[in-house]
Design a protein that fits this description.
This protein is an alpha+beta fold. It has helices at 3-6, 71-88, 107-114, 120-127, 182-191, 198-207, 213-222, and strands at 11-20, 26-32, 43-44, 47-49, 63-64, 93-95, 129-132, 137-143, 152-160, 174-180, 231-235, 238-242, 253-255.
Length: 261
């Protein structure tokens, strides 16, 4: 029986690359709590698994771009926006007056949504806003290798950060939120000053190729999406993970021992 026959089915997940140009080209990253079982202590983009409420058909009246998306993309994008709300306090929405939502998000409400005590849908209705599903540009899609015990089918979305909102970590899953240039994040990972997991690092490198936020979004919309499912190969007697050559990351091979696999 092969690894793929025994591998658990990957769980749908969504991640957000919030980018801005001031004071420089930066992306919002959060530091995972050290007690979280996945990527503990690592610097990551806001995101996580989708929930059943993300697929609620009632979002149709509370989400811009709903009719232009298939059910899978609707669910993923609602989940991405919800995760950004829970982990950073940024709500990617538009008010009834047609302007970006910029009010501060109540920390207690964010915590209650994260705990499942309040439905995210009810929060959005109470605020009388509509989610901007149309603003999310597909950046990448990564599926965890079949050799890993926990697997995710993660869609990465890029979008410009609302200028009037301030990011703040949730204190539970994340313990810090910071704006950082992609090149600086890569440098910190290389020096060992920060822990950045392999998929995040690869997408930081792809992000660093852009000249700014708008260039990043333009590149994402023009790039042909190639799903990345890293495969195991042997190089110089060592097992490595390799990426599809046409996925946009160049020739990449990552030693499995560096991933703890």
């Amino acid at each position: 029986m092969s690894d793929s026959d025994q591998a658990p089915e990957p769980k749908p997940a969504a991640t957000v690359l919030l980018v801005r140009d001031h004071p420089e080209f930066q992306v919002l990253m959060v530091k995972r709590h050290h007690q979280i079982d996945f990527a503990s202590g690592a610097l990551v983009f806001p995101g996580g698994k989708t929930h059943s409420g993300d697929a609620d058909e009632r979002w149709r009246s509370h989400a811009i771009g709903w009719d232009d998306l298939d059910p899978v993309q609707r669910t993923l994008r609602v989940g991405a926006i919800r995760e950004a709300f829970e982990e950073t306090g940024i709500l990617l929405a538009q008010t009834a007056q047609g302007v970006p939502f910029e009010d501060p998000c109540d920390a207690a409400v964010r915590s209650a949504v994260d705990a499942g005590e309040i439905a995210f849908f009810d929060v959005v209705c109470e605020l009388d806003v509509r989610l901007r599903l149309d603003k999310l540009a597909i950046f990448a899609r990564w599926i965890t290798p079949t050799i890993m015990p926990k697997r995710f089918d993660t869609w990465f979305y890029a979008l410009s950060a609302p200028p009037g909102q301030v990011a703040a970590c949730d204190g539970r899953e994340t313990v810090d939120a910071e704006w950082i240039s992609p090149s600086e994040a890569i440098r910190l990972a290389a020096s060992g000053e920060r822990t950045i997991i392999f998929p995040t690092l690869m997408n930081l490198k792809l992000l660093a190729e852009a000249e700014g936020a708008q260039d990043c979004l333009a590149r994402a919309r023009q790039r042909r999406l190639v799903t990345v499912l890293p495969e195991v190969a042997v190089e110089n007697g060592e097992r490595v993970l390799v990426l599809p050559p046409d996925a946009g990351y160049g020739a990449v091979s990552q030693p499995l021992k560096a991933l703890g696999a």
